[in-house]
Amino acid sequence: MGARLSNSHWVDFHRRWAQLRPPLRPNLAVVEGFRQAIAGHAARVLLLGVTPELTELGTTLVGVDQSDMMISKIWPGDTARRWVVRADWRKLPFPEGHFSAAIGDGSLNVVTYPNGQRQICEQVSKVVRPGGRFACRLFKTPDHAETVRTVCDAAMNAQIGSFHAFKWRFAMALVAASGDPNIHAAAILEAFNREFPDRAQLVMAGGWPAADIATIDVYQGSAEIYSFPTLAQFQQMLPATLCNLRLLAAGSYELAERCPIVVLDLA
Fold first, then answer.
1. Which domain holds residue 122?
2. pTM for the full model?
3. Residues 134 and 164 in one domain
4. 20-64 tens-digit pLDDT
5. CA 23 and chain centroid, separation
C-alpha cells in the first residue's frame, strides 16, 4: 500500500488480514494471472505493497511499502531473492530502468484519482526499463454502475456471496452516485452505518459472519482515500509512457469481472 498518514487505517489493517478473501486478496488464479502478465519480463520485479501471495513472482523481487506495521506483520520475510524497502510509491528510491517489471494488487486504488495514480505510474515508468511491463489488478467501477439502494437490497436478500464483494460494490455505488472516483475510507464506513444501523439484522439477512462485517470498522477515523475509476477514467489518467493497455481476466471469484489485471508496456 502507498502513502500513509498518522491516522491511517493501514496501521491496524494487518489485524484484519487473515479474514480477507477475494476480491480484497488475490487467490491462486490471480497469482497465475500476474505470472502470465509479466512472462518474459520477470528478471527483476518491483512489487507495490507487501501482498504475500505475489512475493514468489520474479527471479528477484523487491517489495515497497510505507507502513512499518504492514511490513512487519504481512511481509513474509526477506530471502536471497526477495526483500522489502520502506518507501513511498510516489518517490521510489531506485535508479532509472532498474526493474524489468512492476506489479501491484489494487495498488492504484489506494491513492487519489487522477493525481496520485498518475504520480505512481510516472514513477513506475522511471524505474522500469523501456520495453518492460506493468501489471496491476484494478478495482474498477462499471460503466453502468449500481445504485446504493440496489446494492443494499441485494445484501438484505442474501444475493451477495461475501461481505468483501459487498464492500467493493457498495463503495463503487457511492462514488458513482457522487460523480467522483475518490472516497474517504471513513465515508464508506459512515454510509454503511447509516444504511445498516442494526448489524445483527444484516448478519441474519445477508448470511455473513459478524467478524467479516467487522472488517469495515478499520476505516473508523481514517484519513485514507480510495479511488474507483471507470476503465475510461483510468485510461485518461495514464501517462504516454504506459501504452498497449489490455485487460487480463484472472479467476472466477465473486466480482472478478470488476477486478481485472491491467497490463501495460513501457514505451
1. 10-140+229-266
2. 0.94
3. no
4. 889 999 999 999 999 999 999 999 999 999 999 999 999 999 999
5. 9
